[in-house]
Amino acid sequence: MSATRRSRSPRRPLSRLTALLSAAALAATVPALVTRADAAVPKAPCGDPQVSLEPGAQAFLDKLAEADGPPIQNQTPAAARQSLLNLQAAYPVAKLPADITTRTIPGGPTGSVSIRIVRPHGVSGRLPAVMYFHGGGWVLGDASTHDRLVRQIAHGAKAAVIFVNYTPSPEAKYPVANEQAYAATQWVARHGGEINVDGSRLAVAGDSVGGNMTAAVTLMAKQRGGPKLAQQVLFYPVTDASFTTPSFRRFANGCWLTAAGTKWFWSQYAPDSGVRTQPTASPLRATTTQLRGLPKALLITDSDVLHDEGRQYADKLRAAGVPVTYVNYPHMIHDFVMLNGLAGTQAAKSAVTQATAALRQALHS
């Protein structure tokens, strides 16, 4: 694991690695590959000899390049969702045992929100809670795609993870998902006893756009007078819709997540560009006053288009007096914590360990 703030740019794309693969392409080309032994760092990953990826990540990308599926922005939302499900299923991974229940709770702009409560198996008693908001560009992802990761967080944090099944885009537009996330968080704080969790010990976490929602919920909790949050964890978060950072240009045609894909996700979530400047859409636009007093943060980035906006948000939180731990994984691609195909990499294991340690300390101290 390396901690650095600088990432180099890819000079040319690997062949269409923005693609999430079709079921046919996956069946034809994707065996279990992350077990490949860590050897010498491959040359010119992401098209730039100055960018080095973990061998497991490079192998993952090489296999996707063979499939050469359609870019995300050329798929329908339904097809893109199935592609991610197929990709995750193509990499069978061991999952930690968990006790899982689901519940529909009142609140939010749609009147109710579905939550999935994931507890370490066999652990009785009232646990603290981690609200988890999943990534996938507001369009993709669900309890299945994030199941392995959520179980890891529950075990590592010694907490119940409350996975919020917010309404995806384009079916729902900004700010519906944020309002559902906040409503679920508020409900757990007030009614946690109904699901055997301690609502007074509460943290928030999320990956990619889920990191965006994590930031939004902390801002909303401050503005609306609660609930009190002990910790926020943001994995490679979306924090701004400006598309102007150096990393956005450097990695525009880079590995996995591209500039075109990112803009497509935003068009599904917030087609009205006027709302994108709101702090709960682009947290990086929040003022120092709005950020002051937010819960301590762990913010993790990697080598992708979102790198700079994530680092800048960490810097802005710190300038507002928020305790921040910022770590960059320069040898990994976007989604590296969530993707089952990268679960065995050293970076993914280290990032999850860091996140769960931060959550455990905040919730149990």
UniProtKB/TrEMBL annotation:
Record-given protein name: YtkX
Signal peptide stretch: 1-27
Annotated InterPro entries: AB_hydrolase_3, AB_hydrolase_fold, GDXG_lipolytic_enzyme, Lipase_GDXG_HIS_AS
Keyword list, A-Z: Hydrolase, Signal
A family per Pfam: Abhydrolase_3
Family indicated by similarity: Belongs to the 'GDXG' lipolytic enzyme family.
Keyword check for NADP: no
UniProt-recorded Gene Ontology molecular function terms: hydrolase activity
Domain Alpha/beta hydrolase fold-3: 130-337
Record carries keyword Signal: yes
Species annotation: Streptomyces sp. TP-A2060
